[in-house]
Design goal:
mainly alpha; 10 helices
Length: 257
């Protein structure tokens, strides 16, 4: 919580160096990729970031499945509660998750599809995208719930008492669980937060690319000018997320619920 440095509602606070410096480094990498363009920048970056992300998180998942209580967590993940199936809120949450996960309505799919060759197999591309996304989410589910099962077993409490969501799960519960691993805590901590970094980088690059492409096409600008204008404005706005006020902003935007 010293790093998070959360502020009270209604206040902004000063820049938090522990957040601002990594934010600058992330934007430097993002700009470096975007300046190179689609083929030499985004495509090459994803060939490195995505396999690395999957490999890093797969190691965590394999370790989580070997922990005591992992079966308890997997039972909580896969055991259906049929009494909830007819509730509208369940379906709304499911649709909200998959729409957010697949970036439907973000213009990301439209932007990336515009880079495909004219005679591309759209149906096949759509299937691969959806299947890959769901596969990684299922992999993450294995790792998260197996780890929560370990935590519940160790604390001798129901899994509902250790399960949380969003920023609390990523930056409070999971670090505590990793610290309680029976070995190689530092390694798995690096793998976990490294996975978050790579996942965040790929998401940031794809989101920023949408309006950079729009600015470039609308105003007939060069790639470099579009990145400077579009990416530069985004980077300036993002500074507010390096203040204690960012926690409230993230919750209000629906990123952490």
């Amino acid at each position: 919580m010293d790093i998070v440095n959360k502020a009270a509602i209604g206040s902004v606070g000063s820049i938090v160096p522990g957040v601002f410096i990594p934010l600058v480094l992330v934007w430097i990498i993002t700009f470096g990729v975007l300046f190179k363009g689609v083929k030499k920048g985004i495509e090459r970056a994803n060939r490195i970031f995505l396999p690395t992300l999957v490999i890093m998180f797969s190691i965590i998942v394999i370790r989580a499945l070997t922990l005591e209580g992992a079966a308890l967590g997997l039972e909580a993940l896969f055991k259906p509660n049929w009494s909830k199936i007819a509730l509208p809120g369940v379906w709304i949450a499911a649709y909200g998750q998959i729409f957010f996960s697949l970036s439907v309505g973000f213009a990301i799919m439209i932007t990336y599809s515009s880079y495909l060759p004219r005679k591309s197999d759209i149906n096949n591309n759509a299937f691969i995208t959806a299947f890959s996304n769901s596969s990684v989410e299922l992999l993450a589910g294995f790792g998260v719930f197996a780890t929560l099962g370990f935590m519940a077993t160790k604390a001798n409490v129901p899994i509902e008492e250790v399960a949380t969501a969003g920023i609390g799960l990523a930056f409070v519960v999971f670090p505590e669980i990793l610290n309680s691993f029976p070995g190689l805590n530092g390694l798995f901590g690096i793998l976990f937060f490294g996975s978050l970094v790579f996942a965040g980088l790929t998401s940031l690059i794809s989101i920023v690319e949408t309006f950079i492409a729009g600015v470039q096409d609308k105003f007939k600008l060069s790639r470099t000018k579009a990145v400077i204008i579009g990416g530069g404005l985004s980077a300036l706005v993002s500074i507010i997320f390096a203040t204690p006020r960012r926690i409230v902003l993230l919750r209000c935007s629906g990123l952490f619920c």
